[in-house]
Give the backbone structure.
Amino acid sequence: MGDVSHTSLSPLPSSDRADVAARLRDALLGASFTADGLLDLLGAPAYAALARSETVPALRATRGDTPLETLVRLFLLQQPVPHARVADVLPVQDCLESGWLTRAGADEVAATVDIRPYGGPGGEDWFIVSDLGCAVGGAGGIGSREEGVVLGVGGASTTLAGITVRTPVSAALDLGTGSGIQALHAAQHATRVTATDLNPRALHITALTLALSGAPAADLREGSLFEPIADDETYDLIVSNPPFVISPGARLTYRDGGMGGDDLCRTLVQQAGDRLSDGGYAQFLANWQHVEGEEWQDRLRSWVPRGCDAWIVQREVQDVTQYAELWLRDAGDHRDDPAEYQARYDAWLDEFEARKVKAVGFGWITLRRTAAAEPSITVEEWPHSIEQPLGETVRAHFDRVDYLRASDDAALLDGHFRLVAEVVQEQVGLPGAEDPEHVVLRQHRGMRRATKVDTVGAGFVGVCDGTLSAGRILDAIAQLVGEDPVLLRDRTPAQIRLLVEQGFLEPAE
């Protein structure tokens, strides 16, 4: 890609100088400009403050002249730094010629982009490039209203990276790549990575992120949604952190979809099915409307394309006033003239009122291409704490879907099961009571679910180590408690099915 700039946004470094990117990477690593190095230098409070766009603690922690302090001031705090100090750390002339740095006054240089150290899942030292002041932890914070601004790492992007299934694949697609975070992750387990974006500046920055992180280059394509993808192209993995904000108009490319309501997210999900290879996954973050007179679960089920299993998790719900205020503040509108802020706020509420929207949900959508005659669609609300990364949990969910779809009650009773690791049993009851009121199984990993079981269920899971079939375990329990074994076999498969579905038990085969 050639150089790309945008009105009133700073010119970007050249993406054609891989040699300079490699030398710059070596220099950054040599100075310990890494996630661990930053934490050691700044300390936890100042490091955490950066994530809130508060820079004073980091400025105070970088008053010396070590190489690492110089780089933090230059790339994270966006302060001009004396040319001589930078020359001791970086190939400064190459960086000036290729556009990573620019002259600031007679004897100082300044960064043209944010560069944020980012630790990969395997301990890799990566670097995410973004527009000045627009990395999470950048000096200005997010509040830019430039239409084509490209943001760095945020909570949404790390959430998507964490839930993505990471099995080796031949082809992956990062749709709406932004600064290239998802493409960078995908490059670790995909032979070929394609990254698309409506914003050419984002594609340019993705190329910089990949080069500076030492990752293979991606196939970069400009266009909206699946437009840049040929009709006969399919992928084993599709990921997207799309511009999902439901807003009146499309003011900010990085967040506003430009379609009415939640149509962008719906279109993205519906069109993904035809782009997936057999068994392939498509994983998205999305917002969806809660509309008067309609169940939100039904709305989302209607989005799922034919031939796909789906697991949809609603993580958060905001009423329309909270939602409007969140995104007005995101754009810095609360710092404007009060009358203009009120007018924008009114416009958001008018839009919601016209669509009969009472709230907005946020969460994850995972599709998996399947040949099953009856695809499985699970839509649930789970606002509770989880443990990332969840990619393996997501993959295991669909494995269990396959198992349960192929297993009738008789097959379950013939099956052998194991209690999943990190599941504990809690007995709940009044102090001093001889027997607990109920027993709770609780996961300490993944989704961290909890479920009540009766005494038979508790006894059953306690014996599940894969050696005995479910039917034989139930027969033994029936003898212990004096219950008819036939009746126990009749009523227990539903409970076994639920425990498998929610990830407490796994088939031992």
